[in-house]
Amino acid sequence: MTWYIKRFDELTSLEMYRILQERTAIFVVEQNCPYQEVDGKDLASYHLYKEENGEIVAYSRLLPAGIAYTEASIGRVIVKREYRGKGLAQELFRKSVEFIQNELKEDKIKIQAQHYLEKFYNSYGFEPISDVYLEDDIPHIDMMRITTT
């Protein structure tokens, strides 16, 4: 399995198709949540993913500051169902944070997290900055990670 990180214009049409296929399978179908998954932010984002045998098995969207929030952001974090429980989420999220810090040179990262994953994100230094709220009938919480140098 190989990790890739690409800007939108570096992705092939097949890579983007597979990314959108997995995101829709998880966020729309698996979570039974009809919403506009393709939101226009992909064009200005970096796409971090792991591929195995032509399948996207883990993915996150890395948004520079000013795209979703004033701060940089990580979103659309997924691991394909068959690959869960094997440490891919931890590896994916660690790589996501490292890219934003080291390549984008950002010291603040804001995320909109599903509430049940608060402890997972907390383990990477993210702290709640909002109360729990419903987004598409799913409990969410906004979280922030600030790196001091």
TrEMBL record:
Residue stretches making up the N-acetyltransferase domain: 6-149
Gene3D superfamilies cross-referenced by the UniProt entry: 3.40.630.30
PROSITE patterns: GNAT
Residue ranges of the TM segments: none
Top-level taxon: Bacteria
InterPro entries registered for this protein in UniProt: Acyl_CoA_acyltransferase, GNAT_dom
Annotated GO MF terms: acyltransferase activity, transferring groups other than amino-acyl groups
Protein name as annotated: GNAT family N-acetyltransferase
Species annotation: Paenibacillus kyungheensis
